[in-house]
Each structure stands twice: as structure tokens, then as C-alpha cells.
Amino acid sequence: MTMTSSPTILFVPGLRDHVEEHWQTILEKKLSNALSVPPLEHDKLSRDARVEALEHELSKIEGPVILVAHSAGVMITVHWAQKYKRPIHGAVLAAPADLESPMPAGYPTPDAIRENGWLPLPRTPLPFRSIVAASTNDPLGSFERVSQLAADWGSELVNVGAVGHINPAAGFGEWAQAEELIRKLY
Q1: Could you give the strand order of the β-sheet that contains 130-134, starting from the edge strand earlier in sequence?
Q2: Which of 9, 39, 42, 130 could form a disulfide with 91 if both were Cys (CB 3.0 to 4.6 A apart)?
Q3: Does 2 have pLDDT greater than 70?
Q4: Where does the record place a coiled coil (predicted)?
């Protein structure tokens, strides 16, 4: 993807942070104008710590920013937007994790999600243009629930098909559609 002098792309990973085979990690390495919110050393499940980590990275960037969030990174982004007012050029919100619904085994329990400040999920319109990329068979968020979140946030909804959680476990390393969605926000 060729990008002119334009927005910085800031990747917001989910709770598993950086995974080498993940499309976000691959795309960050590919783009010259890309950065990522670094992994947390402490309070890894804390919503507040995650939101503050995003704000810290944003505070170092001058000029326009496009956020590219995945899974719980989407929830970090929407919680951040409730607290901070920095202008954002746009956001790609891929495979939002529906933290209001029970997660599969191996993910945080409903009690852990509640105790760490993730609920309630923000439902107000985002103050910037956004695209929600939703899978029809995502185990971490049904298409119907994610569609409602997209509507609540005022986001454009893009049905990306039956592609699971758009992560390495679902067969994604590289995800070319992410580049297309970013380009739509320019």
C-alpha cells in the first residue's frame, strides 16, 4: 500500500497484545507511517491502564492519526473516545470483542471483565469516522451484536464474511482487507 505524507497509523492490539503472526503486527512492519501501542507490563486486564497506554502513545504523535484496533483493542478505543477529545482522522475497528457476552474458555471471565472496568460498553456515537469490520462467525462477538455496536457508534459496518475472529487462530496472518479499510479513511 502506498501512502503519501498522511496520517500516522496507530495499531491498538487486543488483550493478547502483540502476536508476531497477527495481521496488525505484519501490517505495522509493512507501513512506514505505522506505530503500535506497546504491551503492558502490569495491569494487563485493566481497562484504565489500557486506555492510558493508548493516550500515552497518541500524546507522542503530531498530526492526524488513524487508529486500527482489533478485538478488545476496539473496546480500548471506544472507552478512550469517551474520556479524551483529541481529533482522530478515523478508525478501523476490526472484530470487536463483545465483552458483555460470555467469552469462550481461555478468555477473561465475566467477573474479571466487570472487575477490571470494561462494562458497560460505550454506546454513544464516536466523534470520528469509523469502520467496523465484522465477521459472521466470530466466537467473540456475534454479527448481530457487533452490528448493533457499529450502529450505536455511528460506524460504517463492513461484513467481512465467515472469517472467525480475524486472528492467527482463524487463519489470519496477513489480512489484505485491512489495508483497503485504512485507505477508505484517507
Answers
A1: 34-36, 8-12, 65-70, 90-94, 130-134, 156-159
A2: 130
A3: no
A4: none
